[in-house]
Every structure is written in C-alpha cells, then in structure tokens.
Amino acid sequence: MKKKFMLLALLILGGVNVFAEESPVLELKQTVVTSDSFGTPVRETAKNITVISAKEIKERGAKTVDEALQGVPGVVVRKMDGASPMIDLRGSGATAQFNTVILLDGIPVSGLAGFDLNTIPVEEIEKIEVLQGAGAVMYGDGAIGGVVNIITKAPINKNVYGGAGLEVGSWRTIRNNVYLGGKIGDRFLLNASYSGNTSKDYRDRALQYKDKEDKRDSLWLRGKYLLNNGSIAVNYNHSEDKDYYTGSLSKAQFDDNPRQVGSWSGYTYGINDILNAKYNQKINDNIDVFLTGGYYHNRDKFQNNSTGEYFIRPEVKLIYAKDSYVTLGFDYRDGNREFKDDVLVNGVNQKAPDDKRKSYAGYVMNKSTFGNWQFTQGYRREKVKYEYSSKVYDPMTWQLKEIKPQSADYSNNDSFEFGINYLYSDTGNIFFNYTRALRTPTIQDAGAWYGPVKTQKNDIFELGLRDAYKNTSIATSVFYINSKNEIYYDKTNPFSSNNQNFDGKVRRVGAQLSLAHYFDKLTLRERVSYIVPKVKSGIYNGNEFAGVSRWTLNAGATYNIIKGLTANADVYYQSKYYAEDDFDNYFSKGNDYVTVDVSLSYAFENGIELYGGVSNLFDKKYANAVTSTRSTWGAGPRKVYYPADGRSVYAGIKYTF
Q: Boundaries of each TonB-dependent receptor plug domain copy (predicted)?
C-alpha cells in the first residue's frame, strides 16, 4: 500500500500550475489516422485515443515497441520467452493477442498468425496511435480491446539527409542503425535504412544454446511520389529475427534465481517480408479517395511453416457540409498458412492441411457537425471464413491419432458505433461513445475448442474529456464493458485444457487519467488506469477475471538541464492479479511491482548525440507473466513465472545530417 500512496502523491504534486501554454494545445490539435484514414484532430474524435510520439519514445529510452507502450493508461504488456509481446487493452487477459488489432502503417499484421512487434525497430517509428474500445467499425473482427497502429517514418521532403547510431548494453547487447534519404526532382522522395540488434539476453541459456546470441536485422525501403493534392507511397520491409528462450520457473526457482534455465528451452527463427502501398487524392473540395493495400509474408524456419496474407481497403470520403462527411469503405483479407513438414498419424506420414482465413467487409461512417456538437455513426458488416484442422491425441500415449479438417463460417458479423462530441471551449471537448465489437474464434482458438462455438460480443460505453489549461493537458474517461460469450482458455480441469466460450457475462468497469504539465524546461507526466473485471454469471459467477491488474500507474519527468542536455525518469507500478488462467481464483493474487527507468542525453550542434541510461534501476524482481498448472503429478497445482529482465545499462552515440 505504501507504494500506491507514494505514486498517488506524485500525481498530486504534479498538478501545480505554471505558465507554458503552447505544448498542451498542440497535443490536442495533432492529427490521428487510426480512427479515420483521412485524418482527424484528436480533439474532434469521440473516441479514446493516445499518441506516443518519436520524441517521447526517445526521451524515455524505449528500446522496443512494448517498452514504448509501457505506461499508456489501459495498456498492459505481457511477454513469455520466445513469443511476441501481447498488448492487452483494458483487461482482456490471456487472450489479449486476439483481442487487439495490430497495424503497421495502417495494414493489419495480426490475424492468421501472430506477428512479433519487436521486429519493428523503434528508430523507424514516427508515432504509435492506441485506439481503445472503438475500432470495430473500421477494423472489424478482433478489435474487441482496440487497435494499435505503428506508423513508421515517411521520406522527408529534403535534398539529402541521413544518420547512423551505435549502442552497447548489458548482456553483450549491441544495437546499430544507419539511414539515408533524399529527393529526385521536385516530387519523388526516397529513403532506406537498416537496423541490427544482437544480445545474449537476461536469462541463462540451456547448454546446447549457451554460446548463441539473439539476432535481429531489419531493412526498410520507402518511396513517395507527391501528387497535386495527394501522394502515392510504397514501403517495403525485410526482417529476420532469431530468439533463444528458456521457459517458466516455479515459485521457489523464481525466488532463488530468476535468471536460471527454465522448464524448457528452444528458439524461434522468423523471416518477414511486408509490402504496402497507399494512394490518396483530393479529387475536389467535396471528394477524397484513399486506397491502401499490402502483403505480409512470414517464414517460420524453426517450425517450418509459411504464412502469407493479402489486404486491400478502398475508401471514399464525401463532404456534404462544413465539418460533416460520410466515409464509405470496403476491405478484403486473404491469408494462408502452409505446413512444410509431414506429420506422423498412427504411424503413417501425411501432409498437414493448410490453414486459411478470408474476410470481406463493407462499412459506412458518418460525421455531422452542428455548431459545437459533433455526431458520429458507423456500421460494418463482415463475413469471416476459416479452414483449419484439429488434432486428436490418444489420452494414454499422447500420440497423434487423427487430423480432422474443420471449417467455420461467420457470415453476419455486424459491428456499429455511435458517438457524441461536444467542443465546449477552444481547447476542451467532452465525448460519449458506444461501440458493439465482435470477435470470432481464431484458428489458434478453434484448434483446441470445447463445446458450441459462439461469437464474442462486447458492448462498450465510454464517457471522456480532453482539455488544456495553462501548462497542463488532461485526458480522462470512464468506461463500462459488457462481454457476452467471452472466448477464453480454460485450464482449471487438470485433465484437459481447452478454448471455449464463457456461459455467462463478463463486466469490466474502469477509469483512465493522463496528465502532462509543461514548464519552461521541465515536463511532468502522470498516468493512471483502474479496472474491475468481474464474471457476472455462469460457473465462475462473482469471481474476478483472471490475469488483470486493477491498478497501473506511471509518473515521469523530462528535464532540459541546459541546451542539448536532457534527463528523463519514469516510475511504473502494476498491482497484483490472479494468474492468467486462474478463473476460479484458486490461487492468491501476486506479482505487483514498481520499476524505475532513467536516461540522459546530450545533443551537440554538429549533429552528434551521446546518450545512456538504466532500465529497472533498482533491479526489481518480477514476472512478465504468471500462469498456472492444475496437474496432479509432481509438485501438483501451482503457479509458474516468466521472469522479467533485471537491471540493464546502455550507452550510445548517434549522428544525423
């Protein structure tokens, strides 16, 4: 409790009035594209959206996408060794990976198979937009929690520019990047960049991997052609990521030495190729068009499978009055995962069937403005079809007995939203939003399903306020989420583990608050999120939904000591929670923690910058994720822990021209 009071005291102390006005106002005027492809100022959006800028990522010393998202109210990041970070928006728990749509420059990369967020170097990021609870009409199936749109740096309209960087850190970590850009003629902009990363990692290796290093390489090529009242942009990314991991620890092992080798060891090796293109054109004063298309391909060299997905979205914006318009859109996704290796079924080799996913959707969004009042309505109809296979094992020998081809067809997925936004002053707005969001079971869910299959339906109600007063910006909201047919992973039975639907409802009630105070040389940040997730009916009626912390808090400060010299400190707190699969609340809550990150940088006038920092300054021991097992064998039912990194130190140099 003392830790909670310390952080709440920081919030109170941060609320003093000072004199800078420009930064809070600019924060509200910035344009976002996740809630409307054509761009909308934050203040004119009747939705909860947070923007993390490249400047903030740099000042906080974030090294990965998940670190950049840390501290955003309503956002919790879960990590298990060897897997991509899972972004949990508003208490989804263990299924968060399938309840959040991940976009890269507006192209969905989460769907048929998981996408590793950390293959995107933070040096390539212009900003990250986090839309919570209100993305279902634009992005459809899976946007139960919301949308995370990672927007990378576009070519600059400058003759020649570039830079390079080198960083070293704990666990033999080396990061490097180089980029070069320029323009050809008056209209054609180009840039290319490379980022590399090698590390031994915090956890000890198993003997067979003792001398191996994690390795990540990423190459980016971008081109943009400027049109009269529009542009054509094409981006290509190639990345390779090899990550050695070791598994979970028991409580005794975790307390003794969280770095030790866990319950299993292995590695992942993925190769990604992503191509996307965008065309936007203002036809006249009343008509805008936007066309987005892309292709994502992943080769999993360890499991020897290949995943590819095409995506296309044409949109038209028709302006019929001042600040009033209707948007018509259509999107199509076609994905396939091919398994290269044969499988042994009852002693006979056979080819594993491929997984397939297709979806078609049409949607309409309307925004009407009457004085200071803005009203939005949206509707989407989507058809999703899966083809996959489930595996049947012998309960005595655990040998594979049968592969069953399966299919699922969800043809009437209707999502809709309604919003009211009132601009009560030159800087402030208050908004209400209601969204009906849907999620169908994914191929990963369906492969181990139990019972009837139903579509999850979330009804999301939110009331929020944004404003700027003198030196302070504020964004706050309260929300109520009612979930029916919640999809979850049930491990409470020691003899079976299955995905299934809750037979009752889950209710989430919460509130979020973000404050930023801009002094002459000092910026203070306070961010708080509170959520109460309760199961309201069924066999777990009255229990708290597993894997969700009630409190998350962040207090930070950035201080420009002298010209070019900047210091930053951030404190993060997360409260206790039940293990991610402990839906009967069998075990006690645990794993609350406070961590501190600090960094310092000095930028010379000649383009050179020196920087350094410490993550987890006080070497706090905690877990990225806590799950459980109900097995009656060995140690019996118990919680298992996936340790987070301990203290790490880094230093680097950058040069830009």
A: 42-147
Instruction: Give the number of other Cβ atoms within 10 Å of residue 412's Cβ.
Output: 8
Q: How far is CA 300 from the centre of its chain?
A: 21
Range of the domain at 386: 2-301+310-319+328-339+362-656
The arithmetic mean of pLDDT across residues 375-391, rounded, is 90
3-state class (DSSP) for residue 646 = coil
Place of tokens 């809630």: 35
Confidence grade of residue 11 (pLDDT, cut at 50, 70, 90): very low
Tracing tokens 């499978």 back to the chain, one arrives at 305
Helix (H) or strand (E) holding 551: strand 551-562
CATH of the domain at 492: 2.40.170.20
Within a domain: 345: no
CA–CA dist 628, 637 (Å, integer)? 7
Distance CA 648, CA 64 (A): 14
Structural contact between residues 7 and 555, judged by C-beta atoms closer than 8 angstroms: yes
pLDDT at 17 over 50: no
CB 431 within 8 A of CB 420: yes
Contact (CB, 8 A) for 623 and 640: no
Is residue 353 one of the residues assigned to a domain?
Answer: no
Burial pattern 57-87, b for ≥16 Cβ within 10 A else e, equals bbbbbbbbbbbbbbbbbbbbbbbbbbbbbbb
Sorted by sequence, the CB contacts under 8 Å of residue 23 that are 6+ apart come out as: 471, 473, 516, 518, 523
Q: Mark out the alpha helices in 107-236 (DSSP H runs).
A: 136-139
Domain count of the chain? Answer: 1
The CA-CA-CA angle for residues 203, 206, 210, to 5°, reads: 85
Residue 576 maps to a domain? yes
* Distance of alpha carbon 350 from alpha carbon 17, whole angstroms: 70
Cβ neighbors of 194 (< 8 A, separation 6 or more) are: 177, 178, 179, 217, 218, 219, 220
Is residue 209, in this structure, part of any structural domain at all? yes
What pLDDT is stored for residue 577 in this prediction? 96
